[in-house]
Specification:
With 251 residues, this protein is an alpha/beta fold. 29% of the residues lie in helices and 22% in strands. It is elongated and about 60 Å long. It binds S-adenosyl-L-homocysteine.
């Protein structure tokens, strides 16, 4: 029997309109979709009525299916001759563990196709009117993970500051350590930032403040995952207010 193909598909930040055409077509015809918790229900609703949907998301009493088990599930289904759509929030290769799934498939000789998605940083920036590399404010943009082993040992020096934009994924829980770390690296306490919660979803919130106030902002506003922290001058440009009015009007 011929192996099926594993499609590692980026589902974007939430709004189904932000899927690529390729992603939408694959979702619509897939007999089996293995998805994680960040994938919006409105996107899963595009699946065939008879499609099998398998969630590997974190549930209250249960932990996320370990990555090895997800890899094994994908390979097992493909080897049974079935095409599998592995649907992931944002882009599969931006903090999405898509690399491990691709390698697991390749090691077993299973064909993999990667379909890029709009990463949360791009979605949040567009929806909040924050031009990540505005010509007058930044010529560098970096994406970092705020929650991973050894946060304090990670070297972020030089990634944030004048002329640079830093986008932090998974940083809600570790916001106090992040603010402390960046200021210890020499970043000004009044460096402006924005927190974008639930970007590209109806319940999106954009909160702003100086770096030193990040922990208080997150606590006072009860910011919940998924959220991004965007640090840099681009979050405080004067033309921002206008951009937001335009974004709101378009909704
Ligand atoms: N592969 C994904 C990232 C997965 S890591 C991507 O490319 O976007 C999960 C983190 O992504 C979350 O903790 C959050 O920081 C961010 N994220 C994902 N979707 C988001 C959204 N709609 N709004 C804000 N942040 C989001």
């Amino acid at each position: 029997m011929q192996n099926g193909t594993i499609y590692l598909v980026g589902a974007g930040p939430g709004d189904p309109d932000l899927l690529t055409l390729r992603a939408a077509r694959l979702i619509e015809r897939a007999p089996l979709i293995v998805h994680d918790g960040l994938v919006d229900p409105a996107i899963l609703a595009l699946a065939r009525p008879d499609a099998r949907l398998v969630s590997v998301a974190k549930q209250r009493a249960r932990h996320t299916l370990p990555q090895e088990d997800i890899n094994a599930l994908l390979v097992r289904e493909a080897k049974a001759g079935r095409d599998v759509v592995r649907l992931k929030g944002g882009d599969p290769f931006v903090f999405g563990r898509g690399g491990e799934e691709m390698e697991a498939a390749q090691a077993e000789g299973v064909r993999v196709e990667v379909v890029p998605g709009i990463s949360a940083a791009n979605g949040a920036a567009a929806a909040a009117g924050i031009a990540l590399t505005h010509r007058e404010s930044a010529s560098v943009v970096s994406f970092v993970a705020g929650q991973c082993k050894g946060l304090s040992e990670q070297n972020w020096a030089g990634l944030a500051g004048m002329g640079r934009t830093l986008v932090i994924y998974m940083g809600v829980k570790t916001a106090p350590q992040i603010a402390e770390k960046l200021m210890a690296d020499g970043l000004a306490p009044d460096m402006p930032l924005a927190v974008v919660e639930n970007a590209c979803r109806p319940e999106m919130r954009v909160l702003r403040g100086p770096l030193a106030a990040l922990p208080d902002l997150v606590e006072a506003e009860a910011v919940k995952s998924p959220a991004l922290i965007i640090i840099g001058e681009v979050t405080a440009r004067e033309d921002l207010a206008l951009a937001q009015i335009v974004t709101e009007a378009a909704q």
